[in-house]
Amino acid sequence: MTVHGFSPSGNCHKLRLLLEQLGQRYRWVEVDSSQGQTRTPQFLALNPNGKVPVVEFDDGRTLSESNAILYYLADGSEFLPADLWQRAQALSWMNFEQYSHEPCIAVARFIAGWTELDSPRRDELPRLRERGHQALAVMQRHLHDNPWFTGERYGIADIALFAYTDVAEHGGIGLSAYPAVQAWLARVRATPGFVALPEPDAQAAQRIALTS
Fold first, then answer.
1. Do 128 and 135 contact (CB within 8 A), yes or no?
2. Alpha-carbon gap, residue 153 to 6, rounded angstroms
3. What is the pLDDT of residues 75-120, one digit of tens each?
4. What is the distance between the alpha carbons of residues 68 and 191, in angstroms, rounded to a whole number?
5. What is the spatial order of strands in the sheet that 27-30 belongs to?
6. What separation in angstroms does the CA of 128 have from each of 10, 94, 175, 205?
7. Model-level pTM?
8. Quick one: which of 158, 168, 162 has its CA closest to 104?
9. Closest of 85, 82, 79 to residue 67, by C-alpha
């Protein structure tokens, strides 16, 4: 299979992490969404929504939306519970990630690192950080009594939530108030086959450092 993705993106890194941990062979095609490469006619033929990641299979089928791809790839593996209730709980947390977590934590990171320092979008940061802390507080409460989000063991809901939580500080959302979240991050990093999200390039890193 071919994965069309942007390496600094947490949504794309979710797939890389799962594929590596599955031991699945794949080809990675870098698509720089920050430079408009998801808006070309060639890419829009793969995903009319103009977003990465997209997985292209050998038979020509394509699948988009990171969590849908995680669910598809993990089916039948240890990363997705066989028990219907636990599977539904995993999907619940993956929906939480896309609707209550990613829109603030990921967007704050994007604005901090991938917009100009004088961008008007930076006015969004205080509200995004407030909402990001609300999402982390929900995770903290769950992790106080549970080691994972995918049921009784590590799996795709953990992968989905890990990607942007691990780099929340890039957007100015600190993790010091969430010890259970920090312990969970360490557990994910210790899983076999783990691969970390690449560090931002020099320009993005400089913007992150200069963003208050």
1. no
2. 28
3. 999 999 999 999 999 999 999 999 999 999 999 999 999 999 999 9
4. 22
5. 27-30, 2-5, 54-56, 62-64
6. 17, 19, 15, 19
7. 0.96
8. 168
9. 79
